[in-house]
Amino acid sequence: MKLWGGRFSKETDALVNELNASIGFDQRLYREDIEGSIVHAEMLGDRGIISRADAGAVIEGLKGILADVEAGKVEFTPDNEDIHMNVEALLTARVGDAGKRLHTARSRNDQVALDFRLYVRREIGTVVGQLLDLEKVLCRRAREYQTAVMPGYTHLQRAQPISFAQHLLAYGAMFRRDVTRLEDCRKRLNECPLGSGALAGTTYPIDRFQTAAGLGFDGPCGNSLDGVSDRDYALELLGALSILMMHLSRFAEEVILWCSWEFKFVELDDAYATGSSIMPQKKNPDVAELVRGKTGRVYGDLMGLLTVMKGLPLAYNKDMQEDKEPVFDALDTVTMCLPVFADMIGTMTVLPENMRKAAGRGFINATDCADYLTKKGMPFRDAYTATGRLVADCAARGKTLEELSLEELRSVSDLFGEDVYEALKLENCMALRKSFGGPAIAETTRQIHEIEAFIQARSE
Description:
- This protein has helices at residues 14-20, 23-26, 30-46, 52-70, 83-95, 97-100, 108-144, 164-189, 208-214, 224-229, 232-259, 286-309, 324-347, 352-359, 366-375, 380-397, 406-410, 420-424, 426-431, 441-457; strands at residues 149-154, 157-163, 191-192, 219-220, 266-267, 349-350.
- By secondary structure, the chain is mainly α.
- A hairpin with a 2-residue loop joins strand 1 (149-154) and strand 2.
């Protein structure tokens, strides 16, 4: 008979059992389930709700089950539906009636809410650690290429000169925000639902503050209905992971472009690329493409759980069993993508001479030309128009602004002097962009130091 079978006069249909069982996926919560049960048993014993002898037997039994699970000696069964009932059945088989007393003043509703929060809290730490490892790679590669001039783009059109370091550090800024989003999620979820019971608390004299403290929470959830029915933290996590994957996907798209012969700004290490079954010349950026593709999968996990939750009345409903698989899938996806992506960036060969060659075409120093005239006293709009005329002339004749003679430059303004050629040199255009956040070496150095300090603060 099932642990909850006292009310029922016949066995559950086999197909219903199959539909109802969640042990196939929620068994990964075994550590959190046992940890929560140990703290619950300690509190029950301390409050005299069960005897200290029974509490001690339960705790030792649970520790033994945990050791056996981690040693691969335990096989969970769908007959017991979920991880909670599997652990309880194992415990009762080992310690007898004492095991039957563990569920006093507790429901599976607050038990699963607790396990899931503990799991999400732990996994956030894993993702943050991987993000910080990626940040370290970006800082190292950025430091290597602070003087490497490349075209910055808008609308995928060459726009202004930047350094490769500046480009990498833009993603460094994004990933810093991803870290803080995850940290914010972890802070908000850090309330303990244990003691909420099925929905209305309990008549037993439990100490919810003791169990919350024992499990590392800031305190108990303040409303028992909310404690068992809230999945905000899971949705917030999926939202943060979706934004993170969006950042990875944008980065992946640029790597894919940079690897193409049309750009050839980088070449991936052979360990992070694949070939074609029919075209022997191909070297495909499959890692980047897979990361880009798996982003949609994480978006789907978010939308799936939002849809599950959108119409549920309080408190717990069985629909909420569908909360775990999307979170598990998103976390598995992200934690698989981040380290391989970091290694791909860390090992790729950067080709700064190709970047510089691309920067030399496309008139990306046109703004600097207009700024030159403005600094000589011409109103910016007039300088903009004059430079536009020069660009149109160069485009028609296949020349660059730097290749124009001083006479040709003066055909649009007498303000041009010999010093214009220094102003138009791409290395100078980049180096003079010293405004806060810009690509000048002093600024990319500052950005690197800020990211490194951010990483260091989280390792102390």
